Amino acid sequence: MKTGTLNRPILALALLASVTGFADFSISFNFGAGIEESRKTAFYDAAAFWEAHLTGYRYNDPSLNGIVIQAEIAAYDGSGGALGYGAPAAAQFFENITLDGASSAANVAYSTEGYMLFDSEDIDSLIAGGSWETLVRHEVAHALGFGYGWNFETNGITYNEVYALDSGQYTGAGALAAYQSEFDADATFVPVEMSDQIHWDEVDEGIALTGIVDSQGRDMRYELMTGWLNTQEPSFVSNTTLGQFYDLGYTVIPEPSSIGMLALCGVCMHFIRSRFLV
Fold first, then answer.
1. Is residue 1 situated within a structural domain?
2. Deepest of 34, 40, 95, 149, by most Cβ within 10 A of its Cβ?
3. Span 87-135, pLDDT tens digits
4. Which residue, among 150, 205, 181, has the nearest Cα to 260 in the 3D structure?
């Protein structure tokens, strides 16, 4: 079941001039309503995961030092529908800069604030099924810019030019090279889900295998950043997803040419195909 998205301000303007200096990358949370202490561990684990692989920025600016994400749990659409939502809420925009490792200048937007909402009707079943941590990790990635940061336009300027709207084709060099290495050597783009254009593509509603598999035989259906949560198999984070963050201007460990596949926790108590809200 597909559902609509929430109306939230995304990527508020914060145009900054170039200066020199480096800063560390970190993820922190402001916890809102409904998030009990026992539920916070998943957030801390998600932060530690992404901090371990996104270690900084490919642009030298001391104002860049991480992201603060507002996280809330509230009733949304009842049990079993949309599970969660995550997106940038503010960003810093840099024009005509050269990222480390790039050969030409680009316009780059970095997410500095994020917002996440989780449906209170689904939390207990997700925790019982071992999928709560996977959901949180997915939405943190969106807050960092996955999907929402692709070809963001404001004031007539386009930032992070990695995806042409309505094309279904992600063409950022880092993710594409990883996808060619992992899944399809002849690919000229990474397929993007057309219904929302912020996830890697899979069979609609995730009801079947895609037939796109990595060298370990894992189908793209189970990649963390597709649009449908499953508990049939453990989710994994692909080189392609980490390469996408490289394209958005983050320093990634390891680099896109040697990123290892990363298995996520996904204890299977029963089979669920539920929509990540976004």
1. no
2. 149
3. 999 999 999 999 999 999 999 999 999 999 998 888 888 888 899 999 9
4. 181
- The pTM of the full predicted model, rounded to 2 decimals, is 0.85
Q: In total, how many domains does the chain have? A: 1
- Residue 207: the pLDDT is 87
For the range 48-51, what are the long-range contacts, defined as Cβ-Cβ under 8 Å and sequence gap of 24 or more?
Answer: 49/137, 50/137, 50/140, 50/141, 50/144, 51/25, 51/26, 51/27
Q: Which two tokens stand for residue 271?
A: 């089979």
Q: What residue type is assigned to position 173 of the chain?
A: A
Distance, in Å, from the CA atom of 197 to the CA atom of 147, rounded to the nearest integer, reads: 7
> Side chain identity at 70, as an amino acid letter?
Q
On whether residue 10 sits in a domain, the answer given is: no
Q: Which residues contact 1 (CB under 8 A, 6 or more apart)?
A: 80, 81, 205, 274, 275
Compute the distance between CA of residue 94 and CA of residue 32 in angstroms, rounded to an integer: 31
Domain that holds residue 90: 27-275
Residue 12 lies in a domain: no
Q: Is there a domain that residue 13 lies in?
A: no
Q: Which of 249, 265, 26 is nearest to 129 (CA)?
A: 265
- Residue pair 14/55 in contact (Cβ under 8 Å)? The answer is no
**Taking a C-beta distance cutoff of 8 angstroms, is the pair 161, 141 a contact?**
no
Confidence of residue 22 (pLDDT cuts 50, 70, 90): very low
**pLDDT one-digit tens code per residue, 245-268:** 999 999 998 644 444 334 333 322
Question: What are the helix and strand counts (H, E) for the chain?
Answer: 5, 14
The residues near 209 (Cβ < 8 Å, ≥ 6 apart) are: 203, 219, 221
